[in-house]
Amino acid sequence: MRPSVQEKYPSVVSLPAGSGSEVMTLNHPELPGCVLILHWSVEVCREGGVTPKMELLTKIPEKALKLFPSQAVGGAAEAFQSLLRVLGPEAAIEAVIMAVSLSPDT
């Protein structure tokens, strides 16, 4: 059995509502207040089609935004959607976790 992302990256990943959570928060231990929130849901149409939806939201304190005005935090959601299309859900989530942790071996 493979470890969950929360078990694999305990210093970065949090599931606020437990293993059945629709939300995963990604925090770097050295950047308090800077949070990426991954929200997922599933849409089921009347015909039985199932469509998973994933969104990446950012929560960055105003003070941090002023310190790094040239950083493209606003494009994180669009970049995540591109990762989803190219890599698929698991690899896209792992790529974001690796970026948040700022280390390839967190």
Model description:
The protein has a four-stranded antiparallel sheet. The longest helix is centred in the C-terminal third of the chain and has 13 residues, at 89-101. The two termini are 20 Å apart. Helix content is 33%, strand content 25%. Helix 3 (76-87) crosses helix 4. The chain has one domain (5-101). It contains four helices and four strands; from the N terminus they run H-E-E-E-E-H-H-H. The mean pLDDT is 81. It has 106 residues and is α+β, with helices and mostly antiparallel strands. This is Centromere protein P. One of its GO terms (cellular component) is chromosome, centromeric region. Pfam families: CENP-P. InterPro entries: CENP-P.
List the SSEs and their pairings.
Layout: H1 5-8, E1 13-14, E2 23-27, E3 35-44, E4 50-59, H2 62-67, H3 76-87, H4 89-101
Antiparallel strand pairs: 1-2, 2-3, 3-4
Helix pairs in contact: 3-4
Beta-strand content bin: 25-35%
Whole-number mean pLDDT: 81
- The low-pLDDT segments are none
Q: Label the structural class.
A: alpha+beta
- Count of alpha and pi helical runs: 4
Approximately how much helix is present in the residues? 25-40%
Q: What is the spatial order of strands in the main beta sheet?
A: 1-2-3-4
How many distinct beta strands? 4
Radius of gyration: 15 Å
Number of separate domains: 1
Reading the helices and strands in chain order gives: HEEEEHHH
Separation, N- and C-terminal Cα atoms: 20 Å
Oligomer: single chain
Biggest beta-sheet profile:
4 strands, antiparallel
What general form does the structure show?
A: globular
Organism: Pogonophryne albipinna
Protein name: Centromere protein P
InterPro entries: CENP-P
GO biological process, one term: CENP-A containing chromatin assembly
